[in-house]
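Reviewers of the previous submission asked for a worked example of the structure-prediction workflow described in the proposal, so we include one complete record here. The input consisted solely of the amino acid sequence. No template or homolog information was supplied to the procedure at any stage.
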Amino acid sequence: MFLVAPDPAYGLVAAPRSSHDLTPETEQALTAQGFTWNSAIEAYTRPADSGPEAVTVEYIAGLLRALGHYVFSCWTAKPRTASDCD
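From that input alone, the workflow returned the following structure tokens.
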């Protein structure tokens, strides 16, 4: 299972629920789309962009679903607040 969402600090995030979700095919598909593993948040991240070739939440969610994963996704980033860090 993955969460795919935009994040103000990290760009586009694809976060696996556990390491069992990180199959070689999944890792290869994400890195082919410009994602890199961020061990600080235990998720794949990709800088946000808005050009015509932009990778979208919908596209990545669909890609992960096609690889057999359940995916939760949201289309807009939630602003971070001080209470998020408590």
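The beta strands are 2-7, 11-16, 36-38, 43-46, 71-73. We consider this example representative of the routine output the project will generate in years two and three.
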